[in-house]
Amino acid sequence: MALQWLILTYVVAAEAAVAILLTLPTPKLLRNRFASLVSLILQPALFIVPFAGFHLLDIYWKNEHRLMCTSEVCTAAERDRYEKSIYKAQRNVILCVTSILLYWSISRICKYQKEVESMEEVEKRYKSQ
Fold first, then answer.
1. What is d(CA 79, CA 67) in angstroms, rounded to the nearest whole number?
2. pLDDT at 27
3. CB 103 within 8 A of CB 49
4. How far is residue 11's CA from residue 49's CA, in Å, rounded to a whole number?
């Protein structure tokens, strides 16, 4: 069960690194090449959106059907286990939402980079005429 969260953690780290590399000030040629490479990778990497969405639904379902430990009958160990599971669920929700938002922001950055590149080409054509 923990393997899927480890995979999601690595995906979020990789997405964050790509987002940082896309937004760093680099030479135009390098930035355009890197943005085109990332935009080619974005299509197969779309699996992360349903993967994270499924896990969000799984967390919601488990939260709705979790045994509550709020009465006086619960022992300290049961209460600690309950609180630990709540904290893990909150951490996992943050991971899922972060992965979806980072994917969206990377795709937007690549799209804007392509639009800027096409506008520069149009500008060059008008200047050369």
1. 11
2. 92
3. yes
4. 11
